[in-house]
Amino acid sequence: MIDFxxxxxxxxxxxxxxxxxxxxxxxxxxVLQLINFAHGDVFMLGAMMGWYASSVWTxxxxxxxxxxxxxxxxxxxxxxxxxxxLIERLAYRPLRGSPRLNALITAIGxxxxxxxxxxxxxxxxxxAFGVLPHRASSVVAGISIGYVDLVTILTSLVLMIVLQxxxxxxxxxxxxxxxxxxxxVAALMGVNIDLxxxxxxxxxxxxxxxxxxxYASKYPSVHPLMGLMPxxxxxxxxxxxxxxxxxxxxxGGLLLGLAEQLVSGYTSSSWRDAVAFGILILILLVKPSGxxxxxxxxxx
Amino acid sequence: MPFFxxxxxxxxxxxxxxWLPFFIAIPFLVLIEQGIALNPALRLxxxxxxxxxxxxxxxxxxxxxxxxxxxxQFSIGHAGFMAVGGYVSAVMLMRGPPExxxxxxxxxxxxxxxxxxxxxxxxxxKPSLRLRGDYxxxxxxxxxxxxxxxxxxxxxxxxAIGLSPIPHRADFAWIWAxxxxxxxxxxxxxxxxxxxxxxxxxxxxxxxxxxxxxxxGYKVRAFVISxxxxxxxxxxxxxFEGNLAPQSFTFVRSFEVVAMVVLxxxxxxxxxTIAAAVLTLLPEYLRFLANLRMVIYSIALIVLMLVRPRxxxxxTEAWDWVRELWRKRIRKxxxxxPRAAPEVTEFLIDVDRATIxxxxxxxxxDFSLQVKPRELVxxxxxxxxxxxxxxxxxxxxxxxxEGRILVxxxxxxxxxxxxxxxxxLARTFQNIRLFRELTAFDNIRVACHHxxxxxxxxxxxxxxLAEVEEDWVAERAxxxxxxxxxxxxxxxxxxxxxxxxxxxxEIARALATGPKALLLDEPAAGTNAKEKGELMTxxxxxxDRFGVAIVLIEHxxxxxxxxxxxxxxxxxxxxIAKGLPREIQSNPKVIEAYLGEKYAREHAAQIAQAGRT
Lengths: 300, 613
Prior knowledge:
heterodimer, A: 300 residues, mainly alpha, ABC transporter involved in vitamin B12 uptake, BtuC, 11 helices, B: 613 residues, alpha/beta, Rossmann fold, 10% strand
């Protein structure tokens, strides 16, 4: 039982990270109907910038503190948001009218560019990462909760509440939702589509940066291809919850993290990738609109 | 016996001719291999290694083009099927006889791999091809990854290390022979009625289904053929390299193939072939740049998408240009279409109290309609009355919640739209749904699809029946174009026709399915008074000439009153009146529905008088 609860805690912590990345996928899909394959690499960039800021340009990682960690996270959030905006402006905006396949190819092209560009600058080898101070695990009712897990869960919780406020209770959030329903009508109602889309990319990239720092703290290493698998899985999480749906992405991320930890805990960890995609296929076959998604019938 | 002998001879000659490109290619391939590739003095091992990689890439790209380009589906898991074929053939080869001088066992291994991959394609495609666009992409990606994970965790397949050594059985001649066969298969399928069925699925699934094309069936077929070819590519790759590792079948590999298809131009076989060569060589030539090369590759890809979004070739083919130069088409003028004699005297359409609800909304309730052969019935009513929903019920787009619909005496419950089209019901759409990127001629030929009997194998072999049928379909299409006055638009893309001609082409397309009853959804929408007059004549002419019954949805009262023999009026899904045009004109309920209750009350006397005259 303790064993099961322990895995549950691990699952929630991993799921929270997936959820943060999934939010970026789902918001962009909501406004553009684009699977932003490069999003996983923005996540990687967040971790990498964290590494540069803590181990190369400063010596923060040798003597980590909470204030330092906050500063490092803030820095990589800014860089990622800037890169996210740049990607949208240069690669996706010119393609907005063209077939969706083209946009998808471009997204994958951008993803490759970030990965191999990262390899060029960073080198292909993993580097050790540590921005959070070392603290002992807290033990609650026999379950030990690692310090990193605690920070991950709390941070994600705060960010999701903030995001919920932005999407459902702010002017720009209303505009985002309007664009996701029907961009041309939203434009006629005076919504600045370009601004909304840029904002969406920026917001998603901010979250991805935080997720990158948290993930790199949990599995303390950074390398240029680290975004590939978490990126794909976060996408699975977004589809699981219903792509385009913000609470859906949170739920999907959580469920996926839990499923993965439980399966890899009870069988072999080499099957964990298959679990994610198995869930994806199952959900798409049974309920293609996702757990919380809205179904759409084509009008004839 | 001369008849028999002659036809057998002819048949043999035909069979030889159908494989001619192949027979011509084989000696060349063998010559090149023996004379150049295997000649140690020339030191061309590296060059031929690249050439063979190109051959494998061509098989992959051209086969994926069947799914992504021709059929318009979106698969990004091609590497998974390649892996299935590759591993199955490799396991067979490794356990097979040590010597295989005539390559019999090798061919068997390749075919087994192809079968396994086709089976995997069927298993994946059957449930997931009803998903559209991005979702299908993600499912195929997921399957691709799962196949890889399974291989990595199966010791029988060498686990994460892979299989080695696989006997070297495939070489230049084999790889390129398969590549040529792949191109030939793709080209011949594309030029056949099956190819048009694929294209119609890409252009507009709803319209394709309404024209009698089994869209799900064709998607699955494209997927299975494509997977089988990918499986062979995998088998050849293993037998050429001498090893297989799961790392070479990742998402990145699938993506490379997708990039080839998109770069070449979706649907263009020439494009896929050339792009396969370019994208295989590009990284090789960029090798001196070491780490920079993948960065440049990705930038090149993005830039290409930005400047040439339709790919290098668009949808055109090299042999189309050649053919244009070769001969000028001679076309026969329209020949008289034989009049169809009405053979059924019972009701063609018999709807008994059909009701459909969407959630809490009852769109159509208790709708009944009987249509006899050669009848002209109009369905009118204010916007939102449920008229188009009735058409959707009749053609099987929606199943009725309650009630029963018979078409040509058969209950249509549970039948797919394409089956109902086969029963003899054809329709046009309110918001024109032509196959926009196909020519007027091809739009009509797609609708002849279900009248043809040639099999896919026959189409690939270019058998006799296939050829006869192709001629027949072309003649039929030309006749219909002539009847509709569209002969001069034969080779224009549907999207480039003016509005009125698009409407006429849609009617011609519906007629091409050989219907017993034709459903026209607002054919006069957006036309001017003169065109409306012409349309009235045309509708009557169609009925007389083709002997079809016509059900018409229309708002223009002059047209409706002028052309129809019976009228049904719908309002809020309820049939409020039915009868002769004159009765309808003076029906107070109808006037109320159109002009409001107040008007009906105030002008009651006038209406009553109008009814008497």
